[in-house]
Amino acid sequence: MRIEYAQCIQPVYLPREDMNALGVKYRRIPVMSIGRDIYCDTRLILQKLEEKFPSGALGASQPDQKAIEKLLESWTIDGGIFVRASQAIPAEMPLLNDPRFVKDREDYTGRSWDKENIKAMRPEALTHIRDAFVFLETGLLADGRQWVLKTEKPSLADIEAVWPFHWLLGLRGALAPSVISKEKFPKVYAWIDRFSKAVSTAKLAAPEPTTLKGAEAVEYVMQANFSEPEGDVDASDPLGLKKGQDVESWPIDSGFRHHDRGLLVSLTSSEVVLASQSKVRGKEIRIHHPRWNYRTRVVSAGEAKL
């Protein structure tokens, strides 16, 4: 897309003081700020980039291709591919010697990250990941296509499908060669390699991002305006919420102990927007969450209720 942007690199684990300063409780990264609108969850971030920068959009235009794109998004995230990929990490990974990292990931996933538990989960995880490689090798990529939708260059469908496998191949020791290898899955490995090269080429052509330190990034956000109108609340939504109600929203698959809270600004079938006060100048920000695998409910008298 060749979009000019600034970045603020965050710590591997909590606390993330820059997020705290903005008033965002969401604990996953990345997040995207366009003005004082803060977009959480990569799925929503990709959607917003596609909408706001249509000249560089990577998404499919045909209904059948859009359906494949959406199914691949669901397959890698909701279908358990990423969960199994995270369970395939080797127990020898240096970060697992850091108790702060281990505690952070246990809070994030809700399961033990003890080394013995990780070793015990790996065989089952690799079994599922191998099955995913088989699906790609003998199904999606079986006819020798270069890209998922037979496009001339990678599309959003490739991004939705490739990222957990791309991550695993870059994680030393994650994939056991006796189970998953270039020799066993040549088409998948070639596809991942093409994707890596395409990303490298795109980076060379893209503007160099400006790197900001935490305080600079927070100030940059707080000086900006909102990037989109506040919207409305769908009166037909099953939750029956009303504009201006005090609500909280959080993901229910991972990072579920960290809830964002604010006044309900907008509610559609795909997005919930909360108005919250930052800790900097007391200015309002708007926190955007997707609806899928997120929960939103009213907060009353300091306690949430169903």
Automatic annotation (TrEMBL):
Gene3D superfamilies: 1.20.1050.10, 3.40.30.110
InterPro entries: DUF7962, Glutathione-S-Trfase_C_sf
Superkingdom of this protein's organism: Eukaryota
Every DUF7962 domain range: 84-203
Protein name per its UniProtKB record: DUF7962 domain-containing protein
Species whose genome carries this gene: Alectoria fallacina
